[in-house]
Structure prediction request, 251 residues.
Amino acid sequence: MTPGEQAGRTPSGLVRRFSKPLLVCLLPLLFLSTAVRLEMNSPGLYEHGFKEYEISATTRLDEAQLTSIAHRLTGYFNSTHDSPQMEVTTNDGVSFPLFHDYELVHLTDVKRLFALNSCLQSLSLLFVFVLLSAAYASRCRTWRTDVLAGLRRGATATLLALLVAAILFAADFDWMFVGFHLVAFDNPFWLLDPYRDYLVMLFPLGFWQDTFMLAGIMTGLLGATTYAATLIWARVERRNDSEHPSTVRRG
Prediction:
C-alpha cells in the first residue's frame, strides 16, 4: 500500500476524500433551511401578509391584535411561549379563543417541522464550517481545490433543484401545496375550513405562495452568491500559488 493510499484510509484522509460530495449534498439543505428559518423567525413577514391580504377585514380583528398574533406564533415556534392560543376580541366586541383544538394540534406539528428544519440548518452549517476550516488550515492545495469544487457544485445543484421546484410550483401550486402536506403530516388536522378556522383565515393560500416564492428567492441568492464567491476564491488561490509556490502542499 502506497503512502497516499494509507493516508486516504485515515480519519483525516476519509474526510478529505468525501469533502466534495458532502458539500454538494449539504449546501442545498443549508441554503433552503436557512431561508425557512429566517421566515419562521420573521413576525414582520406575517404582518406584511396580514396587510397584503386584508386579514383584518376577513377576521374582524384589529391591526394591534394581528401584530400580537404574529409575535405569539413566532414566539411559540421558538419555544418562548408554551402555546399559540390567545384570547382575541372582534371589532364588534365578541371575545373568544383564537384557535380550535385541532388547529392547536396542527400548530404543534408545524412547530416540530420547524424544529427539525432548525436542527438540520445548524448541523449543515456546522459541517460546512468544519470542512472549510479544516481544508484551509491544512495548507493542502488538493483538499482546498476539492472544497472549492464541492462548494461550486453544491451551489449549482441548489440552483438546478430550485429551477425544477419553481417549474412544478408554477405549473400547479395547489397540487404541490397539498402534496407537501400529505408528505409532511400524518393526520388530517391541516384540512381547515376558511369560513370558521382562524388559522387558515390568517394565512390564506396567497400568503403561502408569497412565502414559498420568497424562500426560493433567498435560496437562489445564497446559491448564486456562493457560486460567484468560489470563482473569486479560485482566482485568489491561483494568484497566491503563483506568488508563493513553496508554501503550499499538493498532497
Notes: The chain is about 75% helix and 0% strand. Residues 23-247 form one domain.
